[in-house]
Amino acid sequence: MTGLEILMGVGGGLVLALAGGLFWLDRQFEEPSAKRVVSVAGALGAKSVLAVFAHPDDEQLIAGLLIRAVQKDGAVTRMITATKGEAGTPLPQISRLEELGTIRHAEVLKNGYALGIHEQLVWDYPDGGLVDQDFEILVARVQDQIKAWHADLIISFWPASGFSDHQDHKTIGAATVEAVKRMRAIDPDTAPKAIAYILAPCAMMQRLGGALGKRVVANQPAPTHAMPGEGWAKIRGWDNHASQKGYVQKTYGMPPSLIHRLYDKEHYYVEEF
Hints:
It is built from twelve helices and eight strands. The chain is of the alpha/beta class. An eight-stranded mixed sheet has the order 1-7-8-6-5-2-3-4, with helices on both faces. It is globular.
């Protein structure tokens, strides 16, 4: 066997190993038991969608739902972001640290516009401090906005897990659920018809997420729905969220251009009323 043949054999083996590794990684982001739909909003017949999140860039998790709700279902989409993300870590640092909240406020508005969101509110609750706020006031504020926008589908975090075990995520999820329950108790005909909770991919979190990942999976339900995640929009979204552009690389060890081709679906637990 010549040296060239040996090199070709080694190269072929490396290619196969790499392909096998990528295939295995891709499978960690799948949820085979979830019902596959073209659009969660479309499957539920929603025409007014409201996402209620904690931080700028949380909307990256549901880019597929937001885009398809508008483009395929003709729905109106809106979003509340409860904090300006001022306590986050800039990756990279593109401004003075004391200006991070201002920068991230602008970034979420920019990315929301790119996703086709019709209206956005960014509140001024302290980043990292939602749990310390008056819960009743937070619930009432979410409830008032749901009423004002006549939302029939609400998107938020599952309160027990918050996608990443972040306390802000869990708090805004709990407040949103409570707001919907109170509205349905008063007038179910005008209250939201469903809540869709964005969930973390179980296999990936179990195998690669360490203790935190296992805790998240233990505290979230199995997904009921899976839909395309519009990875191209998420890749673009990290350019819009310039102060957080390095987040994906740090978290997953891969650039957005790769991770959003592997993590190409969104998984939801849908609670219909």
